[in-house]
Write a structure and sequence with these properties.
The chain is mainly β. The chain is 6% helix and 52% strand.
């Protein structure tokens, strides 16, 4: 009898505590859906330039965001957001002044940010008229420093695992690996060799390295896409497919990889969004627009940027376009989000000068 009375008292006390919390408004706040965000826009245009066109975004928090891309003066191709405003980063205070284009940014912490791209130099023995040697810079928490790697090929993608392990890839099938201060160069070869072959994205997932590649032939009328994996013997082709007239079926999204918060591997690009099953790719979302980037805060909660002014959100139940952000003349190229805020970058090609729009939602 005593035990029964004791259990009743404990249950009654628990109910009183729960009701008290509700009355005092101390229950956890509900996270607002991206679909209910209020969006504001900033326009980035470096003074005196004709083009400020950003293409990649990464942040350690909503108060520490970097975006990079192209500027015709090479002085407005890297920007930083500190929680209040966007500021063009003056790289040439600590990095040798040179014309350059930046293709990708990634990091692991505020003091470990990596940006890759290419320098632009005249070719003393044309053709071609210009050379595009590799360009790698790192922010170490106090300044930007250049890592000089002896290749003549542009770098398209960078993936930082830690401060001491970084992977990158780009033109001519070259893979770059950084391990405790030392850079190593490798090449993923295809048969037959070609002059228009590049690796466009690289990632490390569950201790395995994966890479996407593309070879363009017949003046762009025929594209072969590759999915590579690194094993104990080196890089191996896992699969490939050809896109040309009469064959427009994508096996995976060839633009980039993405690892979700629940540690699943996705790809996106033309064809939509695909999930990796371990041996093949499952198409989760099909669209006629190329998905340029994706970012999520939980399983089945993704925000997608796409070309021709489209932005999509998946909430675990359905895919919905955020029509308030639709702008036909804007090519959305990147997205970043956390639990409370989101940033979407896009190239505004509607006028002169050509600028970058940054949507900030919260």
């Amino acid at each position: 009898m005593k035990n029964n009375m004791k259990n009743i008292l404990i249950t009654f006390t628990a109910i009183l505590i729960l009701n008290s919390c509700k009355d005092n408004g101390t229950q956890p706040p509900q996270t607002k859906s991206v679909r209910d965000y209020t969006w504001t826009a900033d326009t980035l245009a470096y003074e005196g330039s004709a083009q400020t066109l950003m293409r990649s975004i990464w942040g350690s928090s909503a108060n520490d965001i970097y975006i990079c891309g192209h500027n015709d003066r090479s002085k407005g191709n890297l920007w930083h957001y500190d929680g209040t405003k966007w500021t063009a980063v003056d790289l040439f205070q600590t990095v040798e002044s040179t014309a350059n284009t930046l293709y990708a940014v990634h990091g692991t912490a505020p003091d470990n940010v990596w940006v890759v791209g290419s320098k632009i130099k005249n070719n003393p023995d044309p053709p071609p008229n210009f050379l595009n040697p590799s360009f790698i810079i790192q922010y170490n928490g106090s300044k930007w420093v250049e890592h000089k790697v002896n290749t003549s090929s542009a770098i398209q993608s960078v993936y930082a695992v830690s401060a001491n392990e970084v992977w990158a890839c780009g033109a001519d099938g070259i893979v770059y690996s950084y391990n405790n201060g030392i850079w190593d160069i490798d090449t993923i070869k295809i048969t037959p060799p070609t002059l228009d072959y590049q690796l466009n994205n690289i990632i490390k997932y569950k201790d395995k390295l994966y890479c996407f590649g593309r070879n363009s032939a017949e003046q762009g009328a025929k594209d072969t896409y590759y999915f590579f994996e690194k094993n104990t013997s080196g890089w191996a082709k896992v699969d490939s497919f050809i896109i040309q007239t009469g064959s427009l079926e994508f096996k995976w999204g060839p633009s980039a990889f993405y690892i979700s918060k629940d540690n699943k591997l996705y790809s996106h690009g033309f064809g939509g969004v695909f999930e990796f099953t371990g041996s093949s790719w499952n198409n989760l979302f099909h669209t006629d627009y190329a998905i340029t980037d994706m970012s999520g805060v939980a399983a089945n909660n993704f925000l997608l940027s796409a070309d021709f002014g489209h932005v999509f959100h998946y909430n675990g139940n359905d895919w919905k376009e955020l029509e308030a952000l639709y702008q036909y003349d804007v090519v959305y190229t990147g997205v970043w989000r956390d639990e409370d805020e989101a940033f979407i970058i896009g190239r505004d090609l509607s006028g002169y000068p050509q600028t970058t729009i940054v949507w900030h939602g919260k």
